[in-house]
Amino acid sequence: MKSQNCDYKFCFGPWNLSEGSDPYGPPTRPTQSFEWKLRQLKENGFDAMMFHDDDAVPDIDNKPYQQILREAKELRKWLNDVGVAAEMVAPRLWFSPMTIDGGFTSNDAKCRKYAIDRSLRTIDIARILGTNLIVLWLAREGSYIRESKNARKCVDYLVQALNKMLAYDRRIRIAIEPKPNEPMDIAYVPTIGHALALAILTSDPKRVGCLIESAHAILAGLDPADEIDFACSFEKLWSLHLNDQNGLKFDQDKPFGSVNLRSAFNQVRALERNGYGKKGEYVCFDVHPYRTTKPENWAEHLINSRKTFLKLVQKARSFDESAAQKLIAQRNYQALEQMVIDHLLGN
Ligand code: XUL
Ligand code: MN
Fold first, then answer.
1. 3-state class of 35 per DSSP?
2. 3-class secondary-structure state, position 74
3. How far is the CA of 211 from the centre of ligand 2 (A)?
4. Is the pTM of this model over 0.85?
5. What is the tens place of the pLDDT at every residue in 193-237?
6. Which ligand lies nearest the alpha carbon of 13?
7. Burial of residue 282, with CB atoms counted within 10 A of its CB: 0-12 exposed, 13-18 middle, 19 or more buried
8. Which of 47, 52, 54, 244 is catalytic?
9. Is 52 a residue of the active site?
10. Of the listed 55, 124, 251, 286, which one is catalytic?
């Protein structure tokens, strides 16, 4: 099942084949090897894999620099052999005891240095894996209680960290993935507007863009399709995590289109009108299997997200745009809405 006859390239990360644990219970599926995950990716029509730094080099904090480089090179060879690209590398700045109170915005200078040093290792790995895209999900950059941090100072810390990364390698591009909450109560970079505003403060704004995740936009009370149009107006949408989210609760990472098909249709329409993917950008699905999923159905949330996406591309392309424009000119939005619903229902 190859991704032929379609203009889009697809990817996911090893964490998207998760084992089913949640904050209230242990895994429900056995651990699988990276090799198995790579095979799922290849066999189901995906083109690239996303990596956290420690997906690429496990236990990265306890390995000497040369060993990190060596293991990254071994992984690159492996990916080359199976014909899978690395889409991006992201520093996992939320696991270590050094990032309990934030990475770049920790109140402790030693911890801030740890976060920057680790991000530079991420850049080393990305260079070896053949991608210039670094993704920053700023997981713990925020506060549990407002009085614990100086938010103005934290903006300075974020800019300093981004500048160090930009200076370390002149070819990298940084895509900030905003999320308004979880694990923090209040995050410092909750929306695409914040991410792009932060980019302007850096030493090389042209190399700082963003990644939109549907669920994160919904958690911020925003429309993911509008976020896509906004980011694309600045030519800043460099990656994308499509998924779905049932209202304002924990980050659910549900299959794309599984909660709100009309919103998914509008996201695809926004991607189509902006020519997303034409400069090599990937469509990534940051989706998780349900805790109830049996091992034999393990990859179906990914297969289904891709399938729904491809069907919605056809729906977007077959939408009767001139009929829609006539209704818009008449300001007959009730009829326009029904036209969309009928189109999605297939009559
Ligand atoms: C967290 C999230 C991450 C990032 C990569 O909500 O979406 O998986 O996409 O660090
Ligand atoms: Mn994501």
1. helix
2. helix
3. 8
4. yes
5. 999 999 999 999 999 999 999 999 999 999 999 999 999 999 999
6. 1
7. buried
8. 52
9. yes
10. 55
